[in-house]
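Lab notebook: predicted structure, single chain.

Context: the supervisor wants predicted structures on file for every construct in the current expression panel, including those that have not yet been purified. This is the next one on the list. No modifications to the sequence; it matches the entry in the shared construct table.
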Amino acid sequence: MPDMIDYHIHTARCGHGSGSAADYLAMARSLNLQEIGFTEHLPLFHTIDATLAMSWDELPLYIADIERLKTEAAPARGEVGTLVRLGIEADYVPKYVEQTRAALNNYDFDFVMGSVHFIDGWGFDDRRNIANYDAYDLPDLYERYFELFMEAVSSGLFDVMAHPDLIKKYFRLEDEPRALYERAAQVLAGHGVAIEVSSAGLRKPCRELYPSQTFLDACFAAGVSVTTGSDAHAPDQLAMDFTAVRQALELAGYTEIQTFDSRVRIPVALA
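Prediction complete. Output recorded below exactly as produced.
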């Protein structure tokens, strides 16, 4: 699908992926992707677990790698090629909002992707911590997740929110929380933050795109913009299941997706 764009990519630097940035670019070219955005995890303030994110020492090396690749890959005027964007995925952890803001302001990212992986210190999407679900009432857990999600949107830190209903990864509610979706969509629209439509959920126990079609429909109705991503952690996952992503976008009514250059939005039509 040559008009599609993958804005969620992790290399071996993240501690739980494989492949180099150059490997991903080669794959993107073979798939005729219009644009790719690298989004390594910003180092975490509350843990030094090397399996979750790169270290602070690695961050400037990552920046340099992608900046160099951007220059090398840039198509000449009039030529068709794959554009490379420098992104970062930053976790929303309430205690460290200002430290996160300061870290992000140190670099000239093309876009900043926000995510909620931690609920009150618990990495709820980490299979090593799955036993912790026994201590929670699932509807209450969804409420808490979306509370944090909306705080993240309102923080002013992020251009895009990754895998917006990640909380469903292991355990889905019997009935979708439509009211939570609608509230989240209004907050997203009010703050001008886009969401990612991610194929990664199809590879997880929930076996569903992030977000669900119901959530995506609510976002379209509220006027929320979208990006697209695979959350690839290996080059062969790049743009995986993007046919399903395209179908979901069309079903919701979207006719364009957002790209970014120096944190400025550039809409791209779905041909």
